[in-house]
Amino acid sequence: MMPKKRILILIFLAGFTFSYAQNRSTSPEELIKTGVSFYGEGRFSEAVTILQLAGPVPEALYWLSLAELASGSYNEALSTLDKLGKIDSAGQWSADLPYHRGRCLYYLGRNEEALIILGNYAEKLDNSNPRKSAAYYWVGECLFAMGRLDDAAGAFSMVMDKFPYSIKYEASSYRINLIIQKKVEEELLTILKWSHEESLRSLGEYQEREKSYDQAIIAYQQRISELLAETGTVEAATAENAVVTDTYRSRLVAAERRIAALEASLAEANAALAKVNGAGAPEFQHYSNTERSLRVLELQAAILELSDALNKKLNEGGR
Predict the structure, then answer these.
(1) What is the pLDDT of residues 59-112, one digit of tens each?
(2) How far from the centroid of its chain's Cα atoms is residue 121's Cα?
(3) pLDDT per residue as tens digits for the range 190-228
(4) Is the pLDDT of residue 4 over 90?
(5) Residue 239 class from Cβ within 10 Å (0-12 exposed, 13-18 middle, 19+ buried)?
(6) What is the spatial distance between Cα 310 and Cα 257, in angstroms, rounded to a whole number?
(7) In a domain, 25, yes or no
(8) In a domain, 153, yes or no
């Protein structure tokens, strides 16, 4: 809902406009005077309405462009300034046209165009002209908007150093402090970004090392499992070999005992045979030659039997 005060102003403007339209005797000078009065009071919309009634008069166009600029109608202000430049190219009202045009371009975001116009305008002015310091201030604003903070600080510092009584002194001081703060913020952001990247890099390296450690641990665990399995197999084989060894050791001892007994029997048989063959053996003297031969054959058969038994036992012990 529109505020009552705004409604009253619109009603007043409508009545005022109608009154001026009906009154053909109202001069452009009176319209300009009223429009400038409204402009000075900050009533920019009303000033625009009144000044438009004054027609294409240089003074009216000048104040109309300022009223449109102040009310935020930047494209309209540029159009009005173009009209002013055409009808008053060498007059007093178009002298500051580059200054106001540069401000319009700045507000429209056309900073590079505004920078060129305002820079050229400021260079042509004498230091005694108050517009010079204001132009440098707006140069600084364009540079600031473009992100050229060091250059902007230089422009604002020029205003403060060379024009200490300029109406833009305080604004320039504020902008310099803002630039200092902004640069500190940018440095902090750079440090934070670097710290973040370094942290990510360290985290990545840590994760890679952790992954390597995990893989190494898994490999060690697998190797340990294999060694344990191999150890169990060796132990089982060792136990089996121990059992086999004990079994064969027992068999070998038994075989050795049997061999010893057979060797003793063989020794006795050989001794007996020697006695048979030997001359003058008293136990064989009463035998005839035939009986002696049979006895010798029996002993030799016994010796062969013992020898075979001994070889068999030796073979069994080897197995």
Answers:
(1) 999 999 999 999 999 999 999 999 999 998 888 888 899 999 999 999 999 999
(2) 48
(3) 888 887 777 777 767 767 777 776 777 787 678 777 777
(4) no
(5) exposed
(6) 11
(7) yes
(8) no
- Output DSSP code: residue 1: -
What whole-number percentage of the chain has pLDDT above 70? 64
Go through the chain and tell me how many residues it has: 319
Structural domain including 231 reads 190-318
Separation of alpha carbons 58 and 117, rounded Å: 21
In a domain, 239, yes or no: yes
Tokens of 304: 């062969």
pTM over 0.85: no
Q: Interhelix angle for 28-40 vs 44-53, to 10°?
A: 170
Max Cα distance, the chain (Å)? 198
Last residue of a domain, one of 91, 115, 140: 91
Task: List % helix, strand, coil for the chain (3-state, nearest 5).
Answer: 85, 0, 15
CATH of the domain at 33: 1.25.40.10
Q: Distance (Å, rounded) from C-alpha 43 to C-alpha 35?
A: 9
106 Cβ neighbours under 8 A, 6+ residues apart: 114, 118, 138, 141, 142, 145
Query: Is residue 25 predicted with pLDDT exceeding 70?
Result: no
